[in-house]
Queue: 2 jobs
Job 1
Amino acid sequence: MANRRLAPPGQQPKGFSFSADNLAWAKKVIARYPEGRQQSAIIPLLWRAQEQHEGWLPEAAIRYVSEMLGMAHIRALEVATFYTMFLLAPVGKKAHVQVCGTTPCMLRGAGDLFEVCHRRIHHDPLHVSDDGNFSWEEVECLGACVNAPMVLIWSDTYEDLTAESFEKVLDGFVNGNPVKPGPQIDRKMSAPVGGPTTLKTVKA
Ligand code: FES
């Protein structure tokens, strides 16, 4: 389980507010809920705040969202610290890598991906690399087991990885030219490797 504490004061920005576009979006999201139930919008608003703030959620953003929704700060803090999708300290500027460490991925070589993270990013999870560009953490199943092992970087998955192809994924973020998300072998989405194996005689 990741450390669910807020980043220390030295890493926290002085304030936070939504950009004009995000503010307009937030107002629309809040309006979806019946009068008196606006607090139900907390998760999408915190998520948007995290996206706006370089992939992590500072305390000022949690306060800002709680005030927007008319909630006590502690209630918003409870949500932000409970869900591991909210990252409470700075992450890599170019990529925060979430490596699936659940059984199917581990059986298919996720250990090699962790070794790459240790060597190229940082020995420990949730620590930013020396150049500030990368961070990593282990997460539970991300629902792409059929293409194990896999990682999630921002909102894209990279699947069917080996240590070598994972290094190429990282190189893509270093160069600002990420490889195409999805399977990193000759496989279409989650179809069998090598092409279809069933229903081959069915005519369109
Ligand atoms: S076990 Fe890794 S995506 Fe499901």
Job 2
Amino acid sequence: MTFEQESLHILAESMAILERGFDRLPDLAPELDPEAMRAVLAETAVRLRDNDPYHHPLYIGQMLKPPHPVARAAYTLAMALNPNNHALDGGRATSAMEKEAVARLASMFGWETHLGHLSGGGTMANFEALWVGRELRPGKAVAASSQAHYTHSRLSDVLGVPFRKIPVDPLGRLDPAELEKTLRGGEVGTVVVTLGTTAAGAIDPLPDVLALRDRYDFRIHVDAAYGGYFRIAGNLASLAREAFDRIGEADSIVIDPHKHGLQPYGCGCVIFRDPAVGRFYRHDSPYTYFSSNELHLGEISLECSRAGASAAALWATIRLLPPDPGGHFARGLESCREAALAFHAALEADDRFAPLFPPALDIVVWAVRAGSATESSARARRIFEAAARLDLHLALATFPRPMIEPAHPVLNWDADTIVCLRACAMKPEHREWMPEILKRLHAAADA
Ligand SMILES: Cc1ncc(COP(=O)(O)O)c(C=O)c1O
């Protein structure tokens, strides 16, 4: 058995507790044809088999992590009511849970006051941060590294804001000297600092960007959609530690509970240091909907309807596994990082592979040694496919020559990029499964 099922019984118990809160109401006969539903659900289950085993440690490809059973159960429990966190009228309890959960994330970054909310995902969360940046620095550009998530250039386009792509160093980190060249033009209003890039897990040098902010006028938005929870991990190397230690000096932060926070999709989160930015969200609401003077989350969010169930799931997860340094949740992140370090060490020792650099968090990227860049890419693709046939699921990522060259995987650079293999060791179990993962990787490379 690979799916956890015990929580289904606990869910039934908590459903009975929820039901007691409404037992004053006249009974409702359930409108359900169990036989028809059974047939359709069986069909659904069969359709869902056409997926890679995202929940299993042998899946170590994309940034996918199974939600914790408590998150799944709390989400399903809330679905009995299907609250809408647009307004207190549609989701009173879950709005309060959302405010508490977001405050807990903000306090992880050292913010006692803040303005923030959950969102459909990292894209919407980053959108709001860039939009607020545009309102505060009208006419100015957004700058982000060439390894930042592509969403930043696309969102800048949507916002009608110029975008400046800043080159990276060989470790895939925004190059502060290159950033300064652009800042000198005086045209940048917001700098995106990514703590945990999507492809390689690189950590931009936040302390250097903070030093530049003392001399140039711009806002700092930290995109920690993937990496944010590593703030509480105790086993980071010094460059990452120094960046995370100063994350609270940014103007806004995005962290995605649906990446490393054990949540179902879609659960992103944007947080602003200065609560006064709430003024930009002001709108003419239909007053009948916002029916109390208390803050409705729809008044500080661009999205209107949002799943209250997401807030219930995150709140329950934080209750069970508080994001405290040294706690059980933090140890889970540390295990992911240990898995990535062990993976990297094993790749270093294998003369078929050329890992790009030690993982800053828990993403490992490596090129396959070959005579030429084109042949290296072709070999990576073959290993990727052979591994999948052995039920080891990796990912592919293309990197530019300057990020790969220090690893010397090829002699003949007949292309400017190489397709590399990539693994996101995002499950704590990856640490114990590493011998099996390596066994299958070797078999795939020999195939
Ligand atoms: C650093 C970073 N920012 C933004 C995003 C976009 O987030 P989402 O896919 O939740 O919209 C991702 C997704 O992987 C990411 O890694």
